[in-house]
Amino acid sequence: MKLSEYNATDYLETEEDIKEYLNASFKTGDSKLIARALGDVAKVKGMSKIAKSTKLDRSSLYNSLTKDGDPKLSTIIKLIKNFGYSFSIN
Questions:
Q1: pTM of the full structure
Q2: Residue 19 counted as domain residue
């Protein structure tokens, strides 16, 4: 039996899927997981398009939005706004 690596982007088909995925990642409080989730969503929405509209360097985005990345808060805010979402504290 051949196993393939899990890829979250294969399951982010709707805006609801994306919102649930991001909410779940933020609830963990794990900065590495959050960065990876933001990267997955950026890939689904088109990394080049996101980079252009946020005026962020595409290769820097790729590097900071991995499991080993550590994006700046300003980058996270730009991404969330670009995705059409906002932060809230409950």
A1: 0.89
A2: yes
